Amino acid sequence: MSPRRVVVVGYGMAGARFADEVRRRDPAGDLVALTVVGAEAHPAYNRVLLSGVLAGSMPAGAISLHAADWASQAQVDLRTGVSVREIDREARVVTLSDKSSVDYDALVLATGSRAWVPPVDGLRGENGSLAPDVATFRELDDCAAILRQVRPGAPVAVLGGGLLGVEAARGLLGRGCLVTLVHPVGHLMERQLDPGGGAVLARTLTGLGIDVRLGRLAARHVVGDGLELDDGSAVPAELVVVATGVRPETAQAEAAGLVVDRGVVVDDLLRTSDPRVHAIGDCATHPGTQAGLVQPAWDQAAVLADLVTGADPAARYRGTPTVTRLKARGVDLAALGDVHSADSGDVVAVQDSASGRYARVVLTDDRVTGAVVIGLPDAAAAVTQFYDTGAPAPTDRLAMLLGRAPAATSSVDDLPDDAVVCRCNTVTKARLVAARRSGATDLPALAARTRATTGCGSCADTIRDWLA
Ligand SMILES: Cc1cc2nc3c(=O)[nH]c(=O)nc-3n(C[C@H](O)[C@H](O)[C@H](O)COP(=O)(O)OP(=O)(O)OC[C@H]3O[C@@H](n4cnc5c(N)ncnc54)[C@H](O)[C@@H]3O)c2cc1C
Q1: Which atom of ligand 1 is nearest to the CA of 322?
Q2: How far is CA 237 from CA 100, 132, 142, 231, 233, in A?
Q3: Domains along the chain with CATH numbers
Q4: Whose CA is closest to atom 15 on ligand 1?
Q5: Cα–chain center distance at 414
């Protein structure tokens, strides 16, 4: 029987991982003939680490997910620098921007998200492209464009105080720029943080030297001058970095008549409204997860590879409980679950704004259902474990935040077997222990075996300490 033709649209974090997962299950390509089409010219890279590239803590070359010869080694027909322009579901063929076409038996949409630029006067030129001193922050090329334009002492404005905006502002501050962070809402990172947490974060960033302007909209941009805000104040800037949110990239899916509700709607088999077309990662909408993070994308890639190769026809994707971690030097922040709908739950909170420490934990029926923890890494570890395992919170709830609860440990040895140590890759303690017992006794071997540490990398120190 000839292999099933599977075409992947998008060679980002989800598309690349899906291809890896397929080849893990079907190394010789007997079952699946893979074509991967990627609009970016680079080999797939770890987008999560772009903040590190911007901040200068790692070179661009260090974030590649695949070596240059990956496609030939993995027997993948890889086409980079070209995009899928049209999907013909009837004929089961996709047409690419280079006018070539590829037939499929199954199509996997992994088109991610694109940066959204608000309709502020002057951000775009007359032809619709960004003004020369305006950049978004989504791709490696964006990062290179920003770094070409900044210099120590240069005034830079960052528009948008969500996760990306805060990471960009911190990174550019580290590069010696004079950074102003403009956010339209009254507190930073309002998707993840409650107002108290947002205020502590703003105070911490201000203390580091960032000029934080909250509750202000950009009214106008003048090339070379910077921004004018809605209260008439000015923000001088040689460069404006726009980090005002992302939108799932669904243009081709919509044009092909697939059901889209913000993202392409998928079920537990990651099927769209056409069972031959699947969607994973940022471009997909599944009821059990919040899109826009890598952990669900990678969980979905593994489930879909099980299904497409037939390795596990019973595999289902049921959702991913996500944790957001800020990657900004000098700011330790974790946000998980829902802290906004606290009406039905109990709240435990501590706040020491002057030293940048804050925690707010929401408990429903004695279980942690949401939390924001800033400047308290041990408490963040403890709260995350209670959230992950669903274990009842200790009777002395404050102990959780003060590092005195039984689970308040950053040592892998003391964790329960089902505790997730590497979140990006959903690697539990039990998997790490099994890999170590089977000979993966140093960090590179453990990473190769389990993939732990290969996402945002924030678990690397914990695992290194455990191996020592
Ligand atoms: C600076 C930054 C920091 C982040 N930090 C974190 C973090 O700490 N934790 C976290 O969980 N997540 C983080 N994210 C989000 C994370 O990167 C995304 O959730 C993840 O990349 C989603 O993977 P994806 O493959 O769905 O999308 P992407 O990685 O965006 O890949 C999609 C790819 O598809 C391509 N494409 C689109 N349309 C087409 C087409 N028609 N034809 C061909 N190719 C196409 C795109 O060019 C792109 O290369 C961060 C993102 C950024 C930008």
Answers
A1: 11
A2: 43, 12, 17, 17, 13
A3: 4-47+59-113+247-309 (3.50.50.60), 134-244 (3.50.50.60), 330-408 (3.30.390.30), 414-468 (1.10.10.1100)
A4: 293
A5: 28
CA of 121 to the centre of ligand 1 (A): 27
What spacing in Å lies between the alpha carbon of 164 and ligand 1's midpoint? 12
The position carrying tokens 């040689």 is 238
Q: What is the pLDDT of residues 267-320, one digit of tens each?
A: 999 999 999 999 999 999 999 888 899 999 999 999 999 999 999 999 999 999
Ligand 1 site, CB within 6 A: 9-15, 37-40, 47-48, 50-51, 83-84, 110-113, 137-138, 164, 249, 252, 281-283, 292-295, 297, 325, 327, 456
Ligand 1 atom with the shortest distance to the CA of 113: 30
The sheet with strand 93-96 has its strands ordered as: 84-88, 93-96, 101-103
Residue environment code for 122-160, b if the CB has 16+ CB neighbours within 10 A, otherwise e: bbeeeeeebeebbbbbbbbebbebbbebbeeebbbbbbb
Q: Which of 48, 83, 108, 241 to mutate to test the pocket of ligand 1 (most atoms within 8 A of CB)?
A: 48
Q: pLDDT band at residue 408, thresholds of 50, 70 and 90?
A: very low
